[in-house]
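Narrative summary of target 7.
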Amino acid sequence: MRADRRRALLALADGSVFEGEAFGQEGETAGEVVFNTSMSGYQEILTDPSYKGQIVAMTYTEIGNVGVNEEDVESHRPYVEGFVVKECWQEPSNWRARESLDSYLKRAGIVGIQGIDTRALVRRIRSVGAQVGVISSRDLDARRLVERARAHPGLVGLDLVSEVTCREPYEWVEGTWNLTEGYRRVCHPEGAAAAGGRPLVVAYDFGIKRNILRNLVDVGFRVKVVPAWTPASEVLAERPDGVFLSNGPGDPDGVPYARENVAALIGRVPIFGICLGHQILGLALGGRTYKLKFGHHGGNQPVMDLTTGKVEITAQNHCFAVDVESLHGVAELTHVNLNDRTVEGLAHRSLPLFSVQYHPEASPGPHDASYLFSRFRRLVEGATG
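Modeled conformation, tokenized:
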């Protein structure tokens, strides 16, 4: 252990304990421990609100080598409860870097641990399942940390959406990033949709990622974001051409108000849902969801689009899934995960709505599924034309 590093422990509820070094904010944190298989994009992972309530362990061995910048964020701050890596690189080498990962986590108050055997940790999660863990550089008594992990409530039944959603509605006008312009901004007058301009999409913020909003702008939408608890009547009062249901953290059964509002919108307006939005739409259609053993987290999940027969490599981050049998006769299975055959996409048999469990907006990638935003645009045009 380096002389300038403090000892830290990661203790799991099953009694497993891993010893390493503290980085980021020193202290203690708790959350459900999951592993992410992405080789890049750690800044986007850290700032994805869907990770609220979770400690993320990266399977790639060296994290932090490209540093941190102010552009590659998916929200205004990191939302992970803790961060676990094999090695946190202290001297980033990238022309866009503005600070090190260690410094960034310190500023954000995120507790991290490095130097543990991440392969052993992943094998444990895969065999036992995702479970609560505690990272601490403050209390190094393994027995006490295991007890605190066992006492932590976990994710089931919790409403984490209310902790990450916006507090007031706002308009989003920023498109995706490119090397010459950075983020492109699109200006439009009020009422442009009614005047034959950009159609209006109201986006429910259950923990929305910024790159989703950028992709909606890129395919020609005017976007208004509303808090997760916004009544369906207020959404319809905007006279939207479509409604988007965003990603977000935790258990879809923990946000019954979202299910009720979405149920009231079904059949009134075209709907597209991603991740938690997909699960909430499934519940609103009368279906059920269930918790996966260790979830899907990473940028290399193979999914087949059953409508085309094509296979796409996707980025995913979810611990729950929709039970397709619970929607028999109501919705059709459109996408399936080729690793475990779980539901990755649904579409209603007659109404203009569809959803996917994965992330077509993934940044830095893969981009195989970005066509889904254009599919939503065509759905809206078909409904309004």
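The chain is about 20% helix and 35% strand.
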